[in-house]
Amino acid sequence: MPPPADILKVAIEWPGAFPKLMEIDQVSLPNHETYALQNADSTNFYITEKNRNNIKNGSILRLTTSPAQMAMQLYERVQSTSLDMKLDALKELANSSRDITFAQEFINLDGITLLVQMVESGTERYQKLQKMMKPCFGEMLSFTLTAFVELMDHGIISWDTFSVAFIKKIASFVCKSSMDSAVLQRSLAILESMVLNSQDLYQKVAQEITIGQLLPHLQGTDQDIQTYTIAVINALFLKAPEEKRQEMAHILAQKQLRSIILQNVIRSTKPINDEMAHQLYMLQVLTFNLLEDRMMTKMDPQDQAQRDIIFELRRIAFDVECESNNSGSIEKRKSMYTRDYKKLGFIIVLENSSREDKHECPFGRSSIELTKMLCEILKVGELPSENCHDFHPMFFTHDRSFGEFFCICIQLLNKTWKEMRATSEDFNKVMQVVREQITRALTVKPNSLDQFKSRLQNLSYTEILKIRQSERMNQEDFQSRPILELREKIQPEIMELIKQQRLNRLCEGTCFRKISSRRRQDKFWYCRLSPNHKVLHYGDLEESPQGEVPHDSLQDKLPVADIKAVVTGKDCPHMKEKGALKQNKEVLELAFSILYESDEYLNFIAPDKHEYCMWTDGLNALLGKEMTSEFTRSDLDTLLNMEMKLRLLDLENIQIPEAPPPIPKEPSNYDFVYDCN
Asked: ELMO domain: which residues (predicted)?
């Protein structure tokens, strides 16, 4: 007779003894005040009422002190007068604080207040010993700040509770010319979280730290420090009131932030990691968003400054040909100006003055529409995405990068207009070609504006036509009725192939971030489907894994049979909560949730669009529903075209008829048949 499903065989270890194989009842685990069971892996998470159902046969558990007892012991030990004992306790506290069960107990003891007091007042006492015990001091402060960050990361208490003295102390660690790198990292992370989580703390932090004090950290070689520093700058930029952002941008320009980042980060010999790429993308978006007000401002005919700009444009465009005619009457000059402004509807006069009017490129209209197009391409005015790494190095090579970008593109527009021999009726067609030229050139991520310009030179109108023709031919080859019937016949097997690929991808698993307002040092978690497609295994990770994560290292599981539905976007529970994520369009597009039982749910934010489509397709396939993602449509089209080409190889250059050929009449006799026997 098989043992009950709730009886599990596990190994339990404790200090001073070898692990012992034991049987435990998963339903009625004892809840002892002094002792508790803990996962004997890198996480060391406690077994609780919420996660006990995730214990599996063969798990290795550790018998250890209960969370409440451990919290009390560490609370007392970190106040020890012995530096060695204090250091050991802080090291253990920093590690234990990752577990939310322990964190709750330590916070209940007012442990956060204790750590804050140690930072505010205790450091002076230890700094006196710094000359003879500098490593000890650095480690002690590092573990104190690490424990603080881990405890706050659980979101149990508000950031608004901290004093100005604590902010000043953290800021002082950042402002010092020589500081332990671990202390500096934690201090920068704390400042970023303060700024992002509280408008009141933003104002206090902004008073304590300046851009000039942050810039030296970008000039070192530690990419982690550089990343944290740019993150703090981005946070200050993001939370600054509208009226102060332009002022802050002016300060950043004065301090040559762009040049420092270009030389010490982008052109560094070290490859840029994902987190640094994200922070550079954030800075790029926030910088371009400063143009939003100008983008939304219409021309005011009563504004003398704007009128002066138009007058200056006319002078630059026409004075070359009109200087010799400047002595005419007032009426004649008015007539000439009227003609000029009519041409400036708008025109690149110096290049186009020799052509007929119908072929002239309207400079004013072109400039306005091109500006709109560039703002759309660069998403000016949109909130930055939490998962995007799409920064362009060339925009860090010039202080007025958007202006230079526009100048290159307006020249491209005029060149394309000439190549297309366009008239005013062709304006929209020209703009479509120009958009395609620009977006294709940006996909290669040019390192400089000159490289971008060179790339555009290779994307002439003729080249765009060739690309379009090639794409069109691939589509038109498969539009005849026999071909369409064959496609329809083989489509189900292609869909089955895509389904298996999606399920295999889920079996490999994906690492997801637990997105919060403090992005870096966020927790990772991993989810994967079992090989038999019956169970989803998931669990927390310390860091982003290299390769697949084994099933047995994931603490939690969800039977596929329990899944009720898969929802996406704004229908997800975690997208209905208040906060920045709800307002972020790109994060909204990457969100999905698994609903199970009555009101339980598992929330996801995919790392990118590809993983989002893989998972939503795979989950729908598991539930017997249609796979509807854009990647499924693209894969189906690609695989169908490939299969069709393979099947039609012998018919190359043969005209395929629309209707089957007629059956010929029977021959009048069969005398032509030869009997070999």
From this structure: 291-442
The three state secondary structure string of 126-163 is: HHCCHHHHHHHHHHHHHHHHHHHHHHHHCCCCCHHHCC
- CA dist 493 to 208, 415, 488, 499, Å? 64, 48, 10, 10
Q: How far is CA 89 from CA 78, 86, 123, 147, 594, in A?
A: 5, 5, 16, 11, 40
CA distance 156 to 173: 26
Tokens representing residue 632 in the block: 């499924």
Answer yes or no: are the C-beta atoms of 144 and 137 closer than 8 Å.
no
**Spans of the chain, pLDDT less than 70:** 1-6, 8, 23-32, 41-43, 49-58, 122-136, 314, 316-359, 472-480, 515-522, 542, 544, 577-585, 650-658, 673-677
Asked whether the beta carbons of 398 and 404 are under 8 A apart, the reply is: yes
d(CA 532, CA 431): 52
Q: What is the token pair recorded at 294? A: 């100008």
* Those residues with Cβ within 8 angstroms of residue 515's Cβ, 6 or more apart along the chain or in another chain: 386, 522, 581, 587, 605
Query: CA 8 to CA 23: how far, in whole Å?
Result: 5
CATH architecture of 489-635: Roll (2.30)
- 446 contacts 398 by C-beta, under 8 angstroms: no
Q: Are 248 and 238 in contact (CB under 8 A)?
A: no
Whole-prediction pTM = 0.70
State pLDDT tens for residues 37-67.
777 766 677 777 666 666 666 677 777 888 8
Structure tokens at 369: 């529409």
Cβ contact 405:294 at 8 Å: no
Domain boundaries, the chain: 162-271, 304-317+331-474, 489-635
Distance of alpha carbon 639 from its chain centroid, rounded?
A: 29
